[in-house]
Amino acid sequence: MASQGNEKARVYIINALKGLEVAPLGQDYRHVFNDKAGRDGANVIGYIPGTDFPQQYIVLSAHFDHIGKGARVIYNGADDNASGTAALLAIAEQVKQTPLRYSLILLFSDGEEVGLVGAHAFIRSYQALLADIKLNINLDMIAGDRGTKKLRFISKGVDSLLDKQGLKMWARLRDSARIQVKKGFKSGSSSIARGSSAVNNRIRWRAASDHYVFYKAKIPFIYFGVGTHKNYHTGNDDFNGINREFYLAATASICRQIYLLDRLMTN
């Protein structure tokens, strides 16, 4: 959170948003917060106004933090979650050129790895917007490893935004992607290295990333990811370990889905 590496990441994201001429949501791109444990952090938040419903929002989120350094290893986090962070910037570039009907909030969250604290801070700070947030789309680990073949997702509440025909159209679009887009995640465990040991816990996918905070706030969500893989939370999660062709196709598929959902959602 309040580390030199995190600040470098924030500066990179902010400069990228400025280069795309994406405005901040408020006066500043940095959304500074202090969590319950007294730790300082800062999200980065961008905003692209919608053409038809500028006062209603889709929140596209990805966390930019990672575990950092262990005793003898650096966790570079290429998939977890540079993949989601870079995808947000790519999608922002597209949406800036061709805006959505609904306004798009780009939430680059801090502190996901230590309890989703950046997403919690966003919800606390923007209570006045919550009733107007139609949907959260959260991207966390969408590049996988070299053997990854499927982009997975879970969702809750989307049926309140789309009618039956819209749900069918969304399913057909997923099925037409160059990669397999499958509902649901395989059961797995989270292994987080701490010193010379590891903490293993079964993964509850609904609560596995920032989308859970939106779910608790009764906001519909879609979470895209690939699930766990051999490089997850290890020192091998670097650029050379990801499935680059898959990642580009996954990002393109998610972008197409965002445009379709934006078009089909009922106001």
From TrEMBL:
Domain Peptidase M28: 43-250
Source organism, top-level taxon: Bacteria
Matches recorded under Pfam families: Peptidase_M28
Xref: InterPro entries: M28_fam, Peptidase_M28
This protein's name: M28 family peptidase
Provenance organism: Thalassomonas haliotis
